[in-house]
C-alpha cells in the first residue's frame, strides 16, 4: 500500500511566468534566464498535482484497496479451506484451497510486477525494480527516438498532410469574405507593428546605401542615350522646345529695356551713346524676331539644328567614351551632395507614412487589393486542382524541411524535458494517471490465478485417480 501523502501544489512564480510568456510572444532566442524559467516551470508541472490529478490518485488508492482486499479475501479462503480439509470436510475443501492458493500466488506476483514499475517492493533493492524512477532518462531518450522515427519521418509527414487536404480546406476558408476581412485586418496590424518597430534611421541608412550602391554599379549614360534617342525619334522633345520658345518670347517682350540696357552697357566706352542705343535696339529686335520665328515655324532651321544636336548627343551618350565618363563623374557629384542623400533618406519616411495610412484605412486601395487577392486565392485553392497540388507541394516541402532539419532539436525537447523532471514526483504523477488500470492487473491476476489453480488441481486429481 502506498502511504505517501499527496504533495502540496507548487505555485508558479510570476517572474518566471512573465519571462516564459515574453519569450513565447517575441519568438526570440531563449536566454539563460528564460531557459531556466521554462525548465523550472516544466519541472513544477510534474511535481505539482492538479485537482484532476488528485482525483486520479484517489481512484488509484481505491483500486489498490480493492485489489489488496481481494488478496486478503483469497488468503482467508485458503486458511479456512485448509482448516476444513484437515478437519475432514470432504474433497471440495481441496479444490477451494487449491484455487485460493493459486489466487494468492497470482495476486502477489502481479502486485510485485506492478509495484516494481514505480518503486522497490517492500523497500528492498531488488534488481530490475523501480523501473520508472531509475530508467526515467532512458525512457525519455527512447520516447524521443520513437517519436522521431515514427512521427517525424518524411513519409509520415507527407502522408498525414495529404490526408488532411490543407490547400482545399484553407482555400474554402479564405473564400469566405468574412475570413478574408479577418486575415486582411491581421495582416494590416502586423504590417503596422513591423513598421513601428523599425527605426527610421536604420531603414533610411539601408535605403540610402542600397540606392547609392545600385547607382554606382549601374552606368546611366547608355540608358539616357537610348531614352533620348527614342524621344527625339518620336518628336517628344518638340513640346518642350515650343514651351521654351514661348517663354523666351514672353520674357523678351516683358524685359526689353533691361535687355537693351545690358547690350549698351557692354559697348566700348569710346563709342557715342546714340550709336550704342541704335545697336542695342537692333540687336534686341533681331533677337526677338529670331525667337518669334522659331516659335511660329515648326520647320525653322534652328529647330532642325536642335534636333540634330540632340540626336548626336544621344549617340555620344551611348558610344562616346569621353561623354560617358563625364556623365558618370556628374552622377557621382550629384549623388555625393548632402541634399540628394537627405532626399533619398527622407523617401522612407514618406513611404512608411503612406503604407501605415493605407493599412489603417479599411477602404484604402492597399487593403481592398489584399482582400481581393485573398478571395481570389481562396477560390482557386478551393476549386482548381493545379493550385491545390502546388500549395500542397509547398506545404509538404516546408514541413518536411523543418522536420528533417530540426528533428534532433524536436526530439531533444522530449528527452531534455523528461531528464529535467524529478524522478520521485514523475513516478507519482505517472502512477496517478495509469495506476488505476494497473490495479486491474492485480485483480485479474487473482481471479485468473484462482481459476488456473483450480484447473490444475482438478486435472491432477483426475489423472491421479
UniProtKB/TrEMBL annotation:
**So which residues are the signal peptide here?**
none
Task: Read off the InterPro entries from this record.
Answer: DUF445
Where is the region Disordered? 1-60
Residue ranges, compositional bias (Basic and acidic residues): 1-19
Biased region (Low complexity) positions are: 28-50
The record's section on PANTHER family has:
INNER MEMBRANE PROTEIN, INNER MEMBRANE PROTEIN-RELATED
Q: What is this protein called?
A: DUF445 domain-containing protein
